[in-house]
Amino acid sequence: MTAETKTELPQVTSGCCSSTGSCHDGADEVPTGAVTTVYDVKGMTCGHCEGAVSGEISEIPGVSSVTAVAATGKVTVVSEAPLDEAAVRAAVDEAGYELLGRV
Predict the structure, then answer these.
(1) For the whole model, what pTM was predicted?
(2) Contact at 8 Å (CB) between 89 and 99?
(3) What is the per-residue pLDDT for 11?
(4) b/e map of 15-31 (b: 16 or more CB within 10 Å)?
(5) Category of 47 on φ-ψ map: left (φ > 0), alpha (ψ -120 to 50) or beta
(6) Residues sharing a CB contact under 8 Å with residue 37, sequence separation 6 or more, in sequence order
(7) What are phi and psi of 74, to 5 degrees?
(8) Based on the number of CB atoms within 10 Å of its own CB, is 65 exposed (0-12), middle (13-18) or buried (19 or more)?
(9) Three-state secondary-structure class, residue 81
(10) How far apart are CA 16 and CA 57, in angstroms?
(11) Which distant-in-sequence residues (6+ apart) come within 8 Å of 90 by Cβ?
(12) Residue 12 gets which letter from DSSP?
């Protein structure tokens, strides 16, 4: 006689994207006490651009997340405290784009 073992896996009901299928609709949770700032960035045209800008801004101390959207030119930054705009400008410049300012 053999014993049969049945293991059920939990059903996955969500992914990295929101229910609308978008990864860029603000569905991410913001940590309590965090500061969210949206910037206009000129020159982003594709996913590579988004990655370059996000990567540079992510290196600024205190930044917990960055979401760049080439289609709108908007970059949303969540940080522990308000960021020095000069630091954000330098990061965007380093990535090869132009910071137009806060939205």
Answers:
(1) 0.70
(2) yes
(3) 47
(4) eeeeeeeeebeeeeeee
(5) alpha
(6) 76, 77, 79, 82, 83, 102
(7) -95, 140
(8) middle
(9) coil
(10) 21
(11) none
(12) P
2-43: per-residue pLDDT in tens? 555 454 544 444 334 444 344 444 445 556 789 999 999 999
Q: Average the pLDDT over 46-50 and give the result.
A: 97
Q: 35 with 89: CB under 8 angstroms?
A: no
Task: Specify the DSSP element, H or E, that contains 94.
Answer: helix 85-95
DSSP state of 44: -
Which residues, at least 6 apart from 41, have a Cβ–Cβ distance to it below 8 Å? 53, 68, 73, 74, 75, 92, 97, 98, 99, 100
